[in-house]
Structure formats: structure tokens, C-alpha cells
Amino acid sequence: MRAKRSGRRAPRSGDPLWGALAGISGAQNLVAEASRLEEYSEDMAGFRATPAIVVRPGSEDEVRRIVSLAGRRKIPVVPRGAGSSLTGASVSKGAVVLDMRRMDAVLKVDTVNWYVSAQAGITLEDLNKRLEKDGFFFPPDPASSSICTVGGAVAEGSGGLRCVKYGTVKDWVLSLRVVLPNGKVASFGEPLAKNRAGFDLVHLMVGSEGTLGVVTEACLKIIPIPAAKPKRLLLTFDDWRSASDAISQLKASKIMPHMFEFLDRETIQAINKNLSTSEDEAEATLIVDIEEPSLGAATEIFERNGARKVVMAKDANEEEAFYQIRSMAYLAIRGLGKAVQVEDIVVPVDRLGEYLMKVKEIAAKRGVKILVNGHAGDGNVHPVILYDEDDKKSRAAAFHAFEELCRYGISVGGSITGEHGVGTQKAKLLREQMKAHEGEEALRLMKEIKKVFDPEGIMNPGKYVEAA
Amino acid sequence: MRAKRSGRRAPRSGDPLWGALAGISGAQNLVAEASRLEEYSEDMAGFRATPAIVVRPGSEDEVRRIVSLAGRRKIPVVPRGAGSSLTGASVSKGAVVLDMRRMDAVLKVDTVNWYVSAQAGITLEDLNKRLEKDGFFFPPDPASSSICTVGGAVAEGSGGLRCVKYGTVKDWVLSLRVVLPNGKVASFGEPLAKNRAGFDLVHLMVGSEGTLGVVTEACLKIIPIPAAKPKRLLLTFDDWRSASDAISQLKASKIMPHMFEFLDRETIQAINKNLSTSEDEAEATLIVDIEEPSLGAATEIFERNGARKVVMAKDANEEEAFYQIRSMAYLAIRGLGKAVQVEDIVVPVDRLGEYLMKVKEIAAKRGVKILVNGHAGDGNVHPVILYDEDDKKSRAAAFHAFEELCRYGISVGGSITGEHGVGTQKAKLLREQMKAHEGEEALRLMKEIKKVFDPEGIMNPGKYVEAA
User: CB distance B186–A439 less than 8 Å?
Assistant: First the structure.
């Protein structure tokens, strides 16, 4: 029997579920009142679903007992960190939500074997603050680093600005402790630089979006904070074709930026308007971190491709100011007063220019505004669709634009997601990508693996692979 | 019904299996005579099993048709590259062996998106020769690079000397084309810098040792050949404790060597004896590649820990000579005229000294000779057990020593394999490691995943996870 997915009234003191959970984690760690459940009923993209009850477990053993209980009663279970997911992955109607943030201990910083072992509920920011004391860092840096948790970042396989150089979360996980849907505890992988004992279940958990089990602890690779800081450049171009050619040529010239971001004219306009700045409102703005030895070659490439401005930050303040342009983009766009949908498509780097021009074409056709920013070095585009939430036609136009953005990405050999994941939002599009690229067998195997881990279908049900 | 594993007479011209396979790949691409099957009946560690027939497919479609045929007839199928496996993974009694080496094309070198796409049968050496033309390389460098294939390296999740800096094969695979045991073709992953669409089946294939499907093509990340070469040092120490302390301190000092190898006194003695060299026969010899800026700090660490010799290679010739000490070790040991078993244990780097002393203790207790070399920077030890093949007692002693080496590794938080894999050799020890570290649920999930991919049990049966 699959788990029930229909809504259920939130249990109250005296209700058997409330009582059982209170017996495990203490009544003070339950959230069941409608007003307090609100916080857990929405993710950062506005996907909504009200849980039955929230538990804030304090230990792996509590997680194990809660999952066992939910399994026996066939109630959905959803692990949750900050709820900063953008795809509906962290909300589930009628579910027992596990707010993992009480489990936030750093268990070990190993400066010889270069790993950190931590509980799932610590934020990436706190993790990095702790690592900084020893001169180390954990490279993946999602925009939500100040609130998002290790468990959430593992479940989503998150990316970030530094990932062009360092890769995403999947490249940094050595081992995981997991409470399985059957209530048993397992460890996947080993806290070792090398390990070939058994199939790789670690990477199956990374990006599984809470559908295979609850990550309680992670052992993550860390590296020393680099001694030499790269130089930061701000560039503008008059058209995307030139900017895109410059990006491709930089990579073809074997230059590996530490960060390589882009923003379009409308994003810069939003920033200037809302944050009272006066940045150059060019068609394309790039912000690039380049190591000193490659600076000359990089500048030459940018100028050869018609950059109308190439500015190197002259000091740490200016470096921070350049960075702020990128990091303030979302806030500035929010300030435009429209509903916002942040998309996440990956295309081959040499098709970036073509894709960005297509974005504008789709926007014009659908009559919605689409701003773009993203990670140029790995072809990861974040189109931001603006629409009017109260207008049915505008909502429909935004939805059609979103689907078209994904489908065009698939058609040029891209992926519907680089770092945000699938959740409920893209389950149908995941199926389309699999059919177009991987083949239906790949999706079938994923669905079978889901059943192996979760035969009763209690873990974050009705989403992602299961729903594709 | 599971595949039959008992021996069968090799089919001949006129036999229906022979005829069917000749119809797919051509009679000239079949090997069925006993004398020619010999080459396919043994791996590099001497694990023996005679296949029914060998086919040398020329295309993915042929592989698909062969696997379908084997599936219908419930005959085991084993993909094979050079057969350089050391664990019995590439030999299987009565099987249809797919010698993949005719499928050796480089399909695409993408210097913008930094990947190479190639068929499974190309050797790593030929792949790197092709990449060198564009100034790129594929970092993992198993000792068998001159013969081992991309498919074999993916199936085994191979490591090598450069892996201390760059990681093993698992860190370099973007996507794979796979013929599944049901004869269907799937693609796993995408040739993109980032991709979060679906569960990670790529990493499930890496290190699956031919038990989940046949890899026909791989898309591998590549990086530019570094402009600045590190400096190469040769060091000797009078005891393992000091050498091991130096290794740990180097890593704790945030120095990342590009290569960090070690050899013991008896290995150096074997080299001096068999290759007429006159290397310092110290208890511990280290060969380290260090980037120039860290050279002073590294030298200081080595000297502080009592290195009796710290020599920097003065030119490319001397660099090559230092490298040859390491790469000739196996040949020199072979020259001792004994049967040789090369082991592959990983321990936390800070327990390396303790482990190496235990190796000598085990050797003394069991009355066998055990030489050691390996990759110091990632704690990967290759004990080389010498024994007399014709002496039952010596064989038994070697076997007990081998098991003890693995078990002691497990007991100090290590792994029974870092880069050679499990095969038939370590299936029982895999179970022991899982029980001790990961828990039995992890192994159960692996076995279930094997059944999902291969319900009829035709792919490289009776080994690894299935046999654990």
C-alpha cells in the first residue's frame, strides 16, 4: 500500500500521533497549531502544502523512531532544512515534516584527512565559519548558504557561484548516515580519500530530494582556503553573441575562472532602480574571478570580442561591490513588485548566447518579462520570469514560458536543472528530458530504485522521479 | 531463473550460439578455440575461469544484440577491456565475454565544455595521447594506463598516482551509454558541467565491475595540462613512524602534493637487485611532487621529522628516474621469482604508520614476505604478498595474511579497496566491511539494486555485491 497523500487535520494534544511524537521528541519540539504550521507550508518559490505536524528531532535515534512510526501508520515523511527549495521538494500535504535544524553539531574537523563530519541541520554558513578557524572551507556555495542546511544541500545536490571551479555538492560528499524509510539506519560510503567497497550509494542520495531517506549526518571533503586570491573583473558587452563568444573562448583558452557570473540589462536596471546604484546598463554584464597569471590572456579575449568595459576591482571594497551586483540581483528583482519564478536551466557553454537570445524571444512571444542571470562558466542559466499573480492569463503565460525555457534547453542538449532540482515543479519535464536524452529505461531504473528504498512510498511522496 | 554458472563446452562453428554470435559480429570476431580462449581465462592477478566464447563487438548495436541473446539463453555476459583487473572481476566460467577493444574511437573532444566522449574500448594512454594534442588530459592514471580501457577504468572506478590531487575515475565521469542486461540501451547523466535531473545513475555504474550493464561510451571531464610543473622530491626515513608523521603533517599544513608515493626497504632492495640500481635502502622512501610555493614548507616538515635524505630532482631526467623507482617496483618484485599478490587497502592518512608496522607484524606472524608501496597522500596501501605457489602451506599463509591485512584495515576505519575493487576476491570481506561500518542495510540495498538492473542475474554473475 502506498502512503496516503490526502490532507489530514493537524493532530492535537491528546491525538495518538501527537502523543506518540511527543513521546519521542518532547511536546516542546512539536509544531501542530495551524498558525505555526504556516512557516512549514511554503517553500521559497511559493509551492504550498500544509503538513500534518512538524517534529524537530534532536538525534538520529529520534529520527529513526519517527520514521518507523510514520512507516507503520503509512504517513508521508519529509525531511526539511530551511525550506529554501524552489521546486516544492520540501512541502508535503498531511506529512510529518522533520525540521532537522536542531541537529546542527559539527562532529569532527579532520585537517589531516581533509574532511568535516557534521549533523544534517547545520547551515552551510555556520559550517564554513567553523572550518575557517582551521583555514579550510567547503566550496559549494548556494545563494541560500546563510540559511540552507547540509542535509538540504545534499538532498538537492546544490551548486553555487564557486562551482564553476570546484563542482557542486555531489563532488564533495564522502559518506552519509541515513535513516531509511523502513526505520533502519545505514551509513553510505567511508570518510576516506578513496573507497571502492560496494556500489556508490552516496551519490544516489545526493540529489534524491528527500525521496530515499533522511540524511542525519554527512562527511564532506574540505580544502584549504587558497593563499592567492584571484582578481575580480567587471565587464559589459553590447550583445549576448559577443559576450557568449568571449565566454566560450575563455574556456577554450584553458582559463578556469573561480567565479563567472552574468546578468542582463533588465537585471542591472532593476538593481539601479531599487538599490540606487548607477551600473552600466549594457545588454550583458559579466563578473569574473581570474587567477593573476591568466589575467592578460583573459583581458585580451574580452577586448577582442568587443567588451565595451573591462574593469578590474582595485581593492577588496570594490571586489565586494562587484559581488554585490550579482548577489543583490534577486532582491532588486523582487522589488519590481511582481511575482517571480527563478528558473534553472543548463546548456552547453558554447550554446549560451543562442539560449539567452531564445529566452528573450520566448518572453516576447508569451508577453511576460524574463530577466536572466546565472553561472556563465558552466552554462547554468537562471531565467527569472515576472508575472502578475492575480491575473490568470499572466500566470498561464508564465507557465508556458517556463515550459518552453525547459524544452528549448533540452533541445540544445541541456538539462532542466543544474542546481535547484525537480520536486513537484519539473516532474513532467524530467520525463521529457529522460525520453529525449537518457531513454525511458533510465527513468524506469530510477523508479525501481525508489521502490527498493521506499516500498511503502512514505518518503516525500508524489514528487520527482516517482511523479515523472 | 538465475543464469547458469557451470562450465559449458566452448561452442564451435555449427553450434547455435556460435552461429548466432557470428551472425551479429562476424565469425572473424569470435574466439572459441581453447588455445585462443586462454588469453581471456585469467586476469592480471591470476584469477582463472574459462569463458564459453569471446566476441569482439564493433558497435553498440552489436553489444545490444549480444546481450539480448545471452539474456534469452540465460548465459552469463562479462564485458572486458584489457583484463587487467586484480580481483577476478573480468573472468567468468562459461560466459560470453565481450572484448570491447575494437570499440576504441574518440567521438568528441570538447575544448569549450571540457570533456571527451569516447567508446569504452580505447586505452587510457591512447585517450590521453589524443587529448594532449589539444593541451588537455584525463587525470586518473592507473598503473595499467597503457593497456587498460575507459570501460574497464569506469567499471573498476580506478585510481592512480595523480589521484591524491585529482581524485579517482568517479570524479571525472559526466555521462555513460550503457547496454542493460535486458538488452535495452540507456544513457545515464548528461555531458554538462551541472545536471540535477534525476537520480545519479552514473556513479552507480562507476565501480559496478560489470555487474549492472555494459558501458559502451563514456563522456569524461578533462582539464588543461597545467602550465607549471611541480617539483619532484625523493626522501628517505629510518622508520615508518617518522615518515608517517611527515605525511600527516604535510597534509595538516594544507599542502596538496600532485603525487605522493611510498615504498619500503624490501621494495627498494628488490629494485636495486633486479634493476642494478643503487638507491638508498632506507626503511621508508617517499617520492613527492610539490608545487614550488610550498617547497620550503614541505622540506622543513620532512627535515623536522628526521628525513635522512631530501633530494630535489635537478632536471627532467632525474624527475623521470625518481618516477621509475616507483613504476618499476612491481616488475622488480616480480623478479624475486615468487608468486605475488598485490593488495589494496585504504586507511586514514594519520593511521598509515601504524598500519604499515602492522603489515610487517602480520608478515612475521604468518611467515610470508610482504613488501609495501602505495599512495601516501590518500592512505592507499598496496601490500605485496610473496608466497610459494607450489607450497600449500605458503599459499594458506598468504591467504590468511591477506585477510588479516583487510580486517586490520577495516578495524582502523579503512576500506578493503581503494582502487582495485572487489570481484570474487573480496566479496566476503566486503560483507565484513559493510557489517562493521555501513550496516547490513547498505549491503541489502546494493543487492536489491543489482536485482533491479539484472533480474536474471546474467551480468558478471556470482561476484562482488551479489556474492557478498
Answer: yes
N-term to C-term CA, chain B: 20
Among candidate residues A117, A90, A120, A79, the one with its CA nearest the CA of residue A103: A120
Query: Is the CB of B113 less than 8 angstroms away from the CB of A415?
Result: no
| Burial track B51-72 (b if 16+ CB lie within 10 A, e otherwise) | bbbbbbbbebebbbbbbbbbbe
Element (H, E) at B237: strand B231-237
pLDDT of residue B5 exceeding 60, the answer is: no
> What is the rounded average pLDDT of the residues A199-205?
98
Q: Look at residue B276 and tell me whether its pLDDT is greater than 60.
A: yes
Q: Do A251 and B111 touch (CB under 8 A)?
A: yes
Listed by number, the residues of chain B in 46-105 with a beta carbon closer than 8 Å to a beta carbon of chain A are none
Which residue, among B179, B242, B170, B165, has the nearest Cα to B213 in the 3D structure? B179
- The C-alpha cell at B86 is 586484480
- State phi, psi for A278 to the nearest 5 degrees: -135, 55
- SS3 letters for chain A? CCCCCCCCCCCCCCCHHHHHHHHHHCHHHEECCHHHHHHHCECCCCCECCCCEEECCCCHHHHHHHHHHHHHHCCCEEEECCCCCCCCCCCCCCCEEEEHHHCCCEEEEECCCCEEEEECCCEHHHHHHHHHCCCEECCCCCCCCCCCEHHHHHHHCCCCCCHHHHCCHHHHEEEEEEECCCCCEEEEECCCCCCCCCCCCHHHHCCCCCCCCEEEEEEEECEECCCCCCEEEEEEECCHHHHHHHHHHHHHCCCCCCEEEEEEHHHHHHHHHHHCCCCCCCCEEEEEEECHHHHHHHHHHHHHCCCCEEEECCCHHHHHHHHHHHHCHHHHHHCCCCEEEECCEECCHHHHHHHHHHHHHHHHHHCCEEEEEEEHHHCEEEEEEEECCCCHHHHHHHHHHHHHHHHHHHHCCCECCCCCCCCCCCHHHHHHHHHHHHCHHHHHHHHHHHHHHCCCCCECCCCHHHHC
DSSP A394-407: HHHHHHHHHHHHHH
* A window 205-224, beta carbon within 8 A of B: 206-208, 223-224
Judged by a CB distance cut-off of 8 A, whether residue B151 touches chain A is: no
Q: Is the pLDDT of residue B11 over 90?
A: no
Binary contact (A418, B204; C-beta < 8 A): no
**pTM for the full model?**
0.96
User: Residues A132-159: pLDDT tens digits?
Assistant: 999 999 999 999 999 999 999 999 999 9
What's the whole-number mean pLDDT along residues B443-467? 97
Chain B interface test: which of A163, A168, A172, A195 (most B C-beta within 10 Å): A195
Place B331 in a pLDDT band, splitting at 50, 70 and 90: confident
- Are A207 and B200 in contact (CB < 8 Å)? yes
- Please tell me if residue A186 touches chain B, with a CB cutoff of 8 Å: yes
- Chain B residue numbers with beta carbons less than 8 Å from the beta carbon of A248 are 112
Amino acid A311: pLDDT: 97
The Cα–Cα gap between B135 and B151 comes to 23
Whose grid coordinates read 538525534?
A: A59
Residue B6: pLDDT over 80: no
Q: CB within 8 A of A60, min separation 6: which ones?
A: A103, A177, A179, A185, A216, A217
Record: contact A252-B159, CB cut-off 8 A: no
C-alpha cell at B174: 559526466
- Predicted pLDDT of residue B337: 81
pLDDT of amino acid A331:
87
As given in the structure block, the three cell numbers for residue B329 are 617496483
Q: Do A420 and B156 touch (CB under 8 A)?
A: no
